TrEMBL record, chain A:
Domain HTH arsR-type: 1-95
GO MF terms, alphabetically ordered: DNA-binding transcription factor activity
Protein name from the UniProt record: Transcriptional regulator, ArsR family
Superkingdom of source: Bacteria
Organism encoding this protein: Vulgatibacter incomptus
SUPFAM superfamilies: Winged helix' DNA-binding domain (SSF46785)
Pfam families per UniProt: HTH_20
Transmembrane segments: none
Amino acid sequence: MVQHWSDRLDASFAALSDATRRGVLDQLGRADASISDLAEKFHMTLTGMKKHVGVLEQAGLVTTEKVGRVRTCRLGPRRLEEETAWIERYRKLWASRFDELDNVLEELTRKERVDGRKNGK
Amino acid sequence: MKNPTMVERKSERELVVTRTFNCPARIVFEAWTKPELFKRWWVPKSCGLNLVSCEMDVRVGGGYRLVFQIDASNSMPVFGKYIEVTPYSRLAWTNEEGGEGGAITTVTFEEREGKTLMVMSDLHPSKEALDAAGTGSADATVETFEQLDELLVTLGASA
């Protein structure tokens, strides 16, 4: 169960690491679209867009359905998407806290060195 | 180059954050347990909250209380008790502002060759509590890494 979870999340993070793919999700959040619509909108080849959609589909963020000759994309299981988004928000909050903490630690380390020299250690 | 912050949902009830710091554990521990240091990093400048007070009695059974000013007329207290305090290696506390059944936070510091691996776990009483935790604090807007980088460059220049 837990392993499944982290695999799913890894796939989601990988899928979300690309600006075009985030754009595609944003677009599909407004309306379903065919792969060729998306390719046109993002100025990409059909093959390139198929690859991006494939990654999103693997991560469960998008589902596609072929009707006749057109493959329509829509947002996948919403829950996972929300879950992923909030974990990422949480991660960013901590990342910014810890980046600030780095500054504090650097200062303390420097101070310790200076004090150490003063005390002739 | 900043060390990466990793977040993983270990189980339905537990969320774990890991990060490495480039200094010995005692220094990291100090920054987590001295209020004057703690309040310098706990609230990133970017999240628009103002930490107006920060009291920490870091010993088993001692309490902590942080008060955030949200706007002119609203403040939000965050409080709980320390349940484990082992200098330089381990801290654990309760989160009581939400009433009964808050999460237990455990932080461990492990020193290796002058660097410290920190693992922080939030254990919630139920899956629902963890799910809900994600929606509350997430409203605090956290800027993109680009903006954060700029901020750090500024801080670095003025240091």
